[in-house]
Amino acid sequence: MRKLRNAFATLLVTAAAAALAYLAGDALLSRGRTLPPGQTRTVESGPVSDEESLPAPAPEAGRDETGTAVPGLETTHAPKAGRGETDAVSAVSAVFSGGLSSDGFADRSAASSYAFSQLSQEDRLLYEELLSAITGFEEKAVLSVQDADRIERVFTCVLADHPEIFYVDGYTLVTRTLGEEVLEVAFQAEYTFSRQGAEERTALVKKAADDILSALTDEMDDYEKLKLLYDRIVTGTEYDRNAPENQTVCSVFLYGRSVCQGYAKAFQYLCQRIGIPAVLVTGTVEGGEAHAWTAVRCSGSWYYADPAWGDVDYQPGGARESVDYGYFLVPSRELFRTHTPEACFPLPECSDMADNYYVREGLYFTDADLEQAGQALETAMREGRESVTFKCAGREIYEKLYEELLTEQRIFQYLQGGAVSYAASEEQLALTFFL
Fold first, then answer.
1. Residue 347: which residues within 8 A CB-CB, separation 6 or more?
2. Which residues pair with 186 in a beta bridge?
3. Where in the sequence is the domain holding 396, given as residue range(s)?
4. How many domains does the chain have?
5. In what order do the strands lie in the sheet containing 168-178?
6. Is the N or C terminus of the chain more exposed, i.e. has fewer CB atoms within 10 Å?
7. E strands, 117-260, where?
8. Are 192 and 168 in contact (CB under 8 A)?
9. How confident is the model over 208-229, as pLDDT tens digits?
């Protein structure tokens, strides 16, 4: 009996100590800091500064084996920091906007479900929970999964599928524990706009996109539609690291200035608006610089498109805008010469060439065919193009075509004048002539 009374007293002391520890602790840490489950932090009384997070609401009480109420402890897990470059693609502190549904907020359709489709059934449920919490502007959403790394990975998948969600900048996880036991993990999105502000901004983005989409016709096939969208993004946007909201679609559609992720998301957004599946891909390019581009499905096959790298300016005798199609609808073997993906989900197989720009436009050379070159130059001049690029299937073909047209100067059989401006890329096996 004495042992029973002593055990009961020990439980009461433990409960009281846990309650005091809870009351002395700050349940919610500022973004970017993490404490182990159950640990508390003492906060001085007084006003909360701009750099101090407000404490979370008191957690529900748990119960010990004796039936005595014991406060549950709350801690936080903040997502990992991004790379920090102006043009970096942060896997966690990313940006969202309203979506493709009639009210302007994100839903999940076939065009915006690629990353979702690569998840397990359990992670698909988590994906739906995160998407619902974000687009519903929920202050706190209890999740079915407690593993922080899984939550981060699935959150990244949501971002990859939904370029239209621009009003979230990261998140915080709030963990409620009882002793060593985790009772629940809740998700708190960090919003950059109020719901009303997001709705108003979404309407502006939609209107700007509608102006571009109005140029499409029912007679166009997927390739023709995607080329028009690619052209509009490239020629209508200036690459600017100082552009406002440069990681979002807003930078392109509202300001006309952006960086790689803004270009990629804007192109992805337009594709999804017309029902063409597209997903954001992040990784690095030469030199290890963080970069973003798009995987898009065209006529049933997947390709890569990098509109930021398609944006070039050429200036002999005055500035002239030009579009580089070397990164439009290309297979993996072409893009991965310069781009290295770092996706947290399996990427689509991109091996087809049927709708590659150079193949469709008769500019893909499987041998050093001067007749094909002459016809391509004639067509480009007749259509008033500023340049034309020949893409070669292999290095031997590239070297032979270079020798015939430039070293032997047979280019002047097709172009008038005593000089010709050109650019040669051994890496891309391409010759560009400026007309």
1. 281, 295, 341
2. 142, 174
3. 361-435
4. 2
5. 73-77, 168-178, 181-191, 141-142
6. N
7. 141-142, 168-178, 181-191, 238-239, 257-258
8. yes
9. 999 999 999 999 999 999 999 9
